[in-house]
């Protein structure tokens, strides 16, 4: 049984990288198999193998305005499914705004997964971090669980069921009230949504949410196991309308 693990526990420096000033390097990296970020114009892409036994390589396939696409190939054997062995993701580069100043957060996330061995254990997620100040540690993590492969499951307490646009989600809350997970009831391969609506539907005081800064936005996959598998993001597009 795999448990959703906070992104901060996996790559603690991620927010510091993603919320830095937008980088000027617009070049697309070729295949890269090392751990760590690849900063680009609008996004920072991550190829993070969290275990020395993991074989994983990624390549960015598109970078067009607000759109980014990439493929990650991996070969991961794992009998302990409590913690992910790897992750692959991209995070938007932006100057953190107050939540109260955000009108909409248009998001598109189209992806495909393939694993001929049929032993894939992974989750596909879109997420955001909130903080009391632009450059301090995150106070809240908001996770949208788009799809679960294998026996992966969410941790936390069920709160309620909400409709975000046309998407029905079960909402879970961590024991310490810092991680909120929206589990899409029908697996979604082509998310099109206003992510601000997830913030509007957090099960905490709305005034408290409005006082936070949005410091991090990402999309990708946490991987627990998969033989000769591929995660193919056709398009991740995120924008902020203030």
Q: Strands, helices and their partners?
A:
Layout: H1 7-10, H2 14-18, E1 36-39, E2 43-49, E3 55-64, E4 67-76, E5 86-92, E6 106-114, E7 121-131, E8 140-149, E9 157-164, E10 167-173, E11 179-184, E12 190-194, H3 196-200, H4 206-210, E13 213-238
Parallel strand pairs: 8-11
Antiparallel strand pairs: 1-2, 2-5, 3-4, 4-13, 5-13, 6-12, 6-13, 7-8, 7-13, 9-10, 10-11
Question: Which key phrases capture this entry?
Answer:
242 residues; mainly beta; Jelly Rolls; 13-stranded mixed β-sheet; cellulase activity; carbohydrate metabolism; glycosidase; signal
Q: Which regions contain 5 or more consecutive residues with pLDDT less than 50?
A: 13-28
Would you identify the CATH H-level superfamily?
Glycoside hydrolase family 11/12, catalytic domain
What is the class in the CATH system?
A: Mainly Beta
Shape designation:
globular
Number of helices: 4
Rg, alpha carbons? 17 Å
Helix content: under 10%
CATH domain topology: Jelly Rolls
Q: What is the count of distinct domains?
A: 1
**Beta-strand segment tally:** 13
The end-to-end span amounts to 40 Å
Determine the strand fraction and express it as a percent band: over 45%
Largest sheet features:
13 strands, mixed
Detailed description of the structure:
This protein is mainly beta. The protein has a single domain (7-238), classed as Sandwich (Jelly Rolls), CATH 2.60.120.180. The protein has four helices and 13 strands. Strands 1, 2, 3, 4, 5, 6, 7, 8, 9, 10, 11, 12 and 13 form a 13-stranded mixed sheet that branches. Strand 9 and strand 10 form a beta hairpin. 42% of the residues are buried. Residues 13-28 have low confidence and may be disordered.
């Amino acid at each position: 049984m795999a448990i959703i693990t906070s992104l901060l526990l996996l790559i603690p420096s991620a927010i510091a990288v993603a919320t830095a000033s937008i980088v000027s390097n617009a070049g697309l990296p070729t295949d890269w198999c090392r751990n760590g970020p690849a900063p680009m114009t609008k996004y920072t892409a991550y190829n993070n193998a969290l275990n020395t036994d993991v074989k994983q390589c990624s390549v960015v396939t598109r970078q067009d305005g607000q759109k980014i696409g990439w493929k990650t190939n991996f070969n991961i054997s794992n009998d302990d499914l409590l913690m992910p062995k790897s992750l692959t993701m991209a995070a938007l580069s932006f100057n953190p705004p107050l939540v109260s100043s955000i009108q909409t957060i248009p998001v598109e996330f189209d992806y495909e997964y393939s694993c001929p061995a049929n032993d894939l254990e992974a989750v596909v997620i879109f997420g955001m971090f909130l903080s009391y100040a632009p450059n301090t540690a995150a106070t809240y993590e908001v996770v949208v669980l788009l799809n679960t492969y294998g026996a992966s499951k969410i941790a936390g307490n069920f709160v309620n069921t909400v409709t975000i646009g046309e998407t029905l989600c079960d909402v879970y809350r961590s024991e310490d009230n810092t991680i909120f997970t929206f589990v899409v009831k029908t697996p979604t391969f082509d998310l099109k949504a206003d992510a601000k609506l997830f913030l509007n539907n957090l099960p905490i005081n709305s005034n408290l949410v409005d006082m936070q800064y949005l410091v991090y936005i990402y999309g990708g996959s946490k991987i627990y196991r998969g033989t000769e598998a591929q995660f193919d993001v056709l398009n991740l597009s995120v924008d902020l309308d203030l």
